[in-house]
Amino acid sequence: MSTLEIRDLHVAVEDKPILRGVDLTVRAGETHAIMGPNGSGKSTLAYAVAGHPKYTVTGGQVLLDGEDLLEMSVDERARAGLFLAMQYPVEVPGVSVSNFLRSAVTAVRGEAPKLREFSKELRSKMDDLHIDPSFAQRNLNEGFSGGEKKRHEILQLELLKPKIAVLDETDSGLDVDALRVVSEGINRFRSGDTGVLLITHYTRILRYVKPDFVHVFAGGRIVEEGGPELAERLESEGYERYVKATA
Ligand code: ADP
Ligand code: MG
Ligand code: MG
Question: Has the keyword ATP-binding been applied to this entry (predicted)?
Answer without folding.
Answer: yes
